[in-house]
Write a structure and sequence with these properties.
Length: 509
């Protein structure tokens, strides 16, 4: 059964797929008079069917016929002798809207309530009031069935690893980047690439725009599996994702009591001042935005990282941390791949960060006092250090980076090995011409960008970015003396773009 807005689209495809699979399928067709009460033929078909598939759509509740159908289906399922199974499908509508009659369902039932109020016949008014009440109850029950039905998919998972992966995603990672999840859980020996595919094969999750997604009720079902591990004592559950549960457990027992804790995210906890110790099992630790954590004193949780050698991802951004809050050494964090220290009060890269043996991604953005990023670990492949108003020098690792972002750093003079800031007066005229910059005046500041006359050949390459203070322009520039040049900075004076200085990025061929 389905709503009018899916009849010629989704439902047709579903019906054809079921028929092709050899499943005997009955569908209420367009020939039926939907202005009348539910016919005996359809009631008979429902009672004789093993499974009813209800396709809920945005306009579903506007049809009295559809509401009578779902009422009959739920009644049939609840008969003691019935083995009738109900499978709801939510097409462009949230399950919570069906359960609670919100959204488009609220609008439809609002019309029914108005209709009841306008009815002058007392007997008909009562009949309609009881009918609408029964519809609401049946929708609430039908909208809650998916977690029970799709638990079958979870139960068919034979591998314990796949079940653990499913519960991890349901509790922590819905909407996260797939590559991030793979990188994080691979360190837990969970074989996430194969596991994610197994879960997709059972329709327990899907990938959209590179992110792992899961139907709301499937997610709720996974979280309920974890909740049932210890309904009354959250501290005995394998996973904690609700902030209040996490806070209560930490307050009562401390972090050390959570011996199996894998991921801890208490970001935005303004009252957090420190965490004395962390469990050895921890893989991901996030306290983004805990602004009362910082200060000139040493912070215990930063020092206790040495006990958590399994850590893969640490986010301590926007915690008001100073230079001397960090320990001297993190070299035992051999599994750490991702570190975010953005938005803190550091003036240079902490010594402990330099000692990380396997770090791949480092984020140090929006650090107003950061002057230098030196001695970056050799393992780094992605380095972000943008919007640092005091930053003057960056020293990338000797190995090639797959991504480097140092935009919006007005004082940046040098990125060793690839960028040097020069006064326009010192730049060779050939470089100016090859960059497509034409002379406008002779005062040393009068150079504008000449896109049409820019030197181009087959060996030319795209400018990475031409930053004109919140404006960008892309152009072709040539290989010059064995190096590629990229203009990185232009200052706007008056109504024309003039050059006060050049940022030239030189990459060895």
């Amino acid at each position: 059964m389905d709503g009018e807005d899916t009849r010629k689209t989704f439902t047709d495809h579903l019906y054809a797929a079921l028929k092709q699979a050899g499943i005997r399928t009955f569908r209420d067709d367009d020939a039926m008079d939907r202005g009348k009460l539910l016919g005996p033929e359809l009631k008979k078909a429902i009672r004789e069917s093993a499974i009813s598939i209800i396709v809920f759509s945005r306009n579903y509740a506007t049809s009295k016929w559809c509401l009578d159908e779902v009422l009959t289906i739920i009644e049939e399922q609840e008969r003691l002798s019935s083995k009738h199974e109900v499978v709801p499908v939510f097409y462009d509508v949230e399950p919570s809207d069906v359960r609670n009659q919100t959204g488009s369902f609220e609008e439809a039932f609002g019309e029914y309530d108005n209709m009841i109020e306008a009815e002058t016949d007392h007997q008909k008014k009562n009949e309609w009031r009881e009918k609408v009440k029964a519809w609401r109850v049946s929708l609430r029950k039908a909208g809650s069935l998916t977690g029970m039905v799709l638990a079958n998919g979870y139960d068919t998972l034979e591998d314990t690893n796949d079940k653990d992966l499913f519960l991890h995603v349901a509790c922590f990672f819905v909407g996260e980047d797939k590559e991030f999840i793979v990188k994080l859980l691979a360190e837990c020996d969970m074989y996430p690439i194969v596991g994610i595919q197994n879960l997709m094969d059972r329709c327990l999750l899907y990938i959209e725009d590179g992110r792992v997604k899961m139907h709301q009720l499937i997610q709720e079902m996974g979280q309920e599996v974890v909740r049932q591990e210890s309904p009354k004592d959250p501290g005995k559950r394998s996973r904690l994702w609700h902030h209040q549960d996490s806070f209560n457990v930490l307050k009562e027992n401390g972090v050390r009591s959570l011996e199996r804790l894998v991921s801890l995210d208490i970001s935005g906890c303004m009252s957090l001042k420190d965490i004395s110790c962390l469990p050895k099992s921890l893989v991901s630790f996030k306290i983004h935005g805990c602004s009362n954590l910082g200060g000139v004193r040493q912070i215990q949780c930063l020092h206790s990282f040495s006990q958590s050698s399994l850590l893969v991802d640490i986010d301590i951004s926007k915690c008001s941390i100073f230079d001397n809050s960090f320990p001297e050494d993190w070299s035992n964090l051999f599994a750490l791949k991702i570190l975010n220290i953005s938005g803190n009060n550091i003036t240079s890269l902490p010594t402990c960060v330099k000692s990380l043996p396997s770090l791949e991604e480092l984020y140090s953005n929006y650090c107003s006092y950061l002057k230098s990023v030196l001695d970056v670990p050799k393992s780094i492949t992605e380095l972000q250090s943008y919007a640092n108003m005091s930053l003057e020098i960056v020293q990338p690792p000797p190995n090639p980076l797959t991504f480097l972002l140092v935009d919006r750093c007005e004082k940046l003079c040098v990125v060793e090995g690839c960028l040097k800031r020069e006064s326009i007066k010192k730049v060779d005229r050939k470089v100016i011409r090859y960059l497509g910059l034409s002379s406008i005046s002779e005062n040393g500041m009068g150079f504008g960008f000449d896109k049409q006359n820019a030197y181009t050949e087959e060996v030319s390459t795209k400018v990475l970015f031409l930053n004109m203070y919140h404006m960008s322009l892309e152009s072709s520039v040539p290989a010059f003396q064995g190096k590629r040049f990229h203009v990185l900075g232009i200052k706007k004076l008056d109504q024309r773009y003039h050059l006060e200085f050049l940022h030239i990025l030189m990459v060895q061929e």
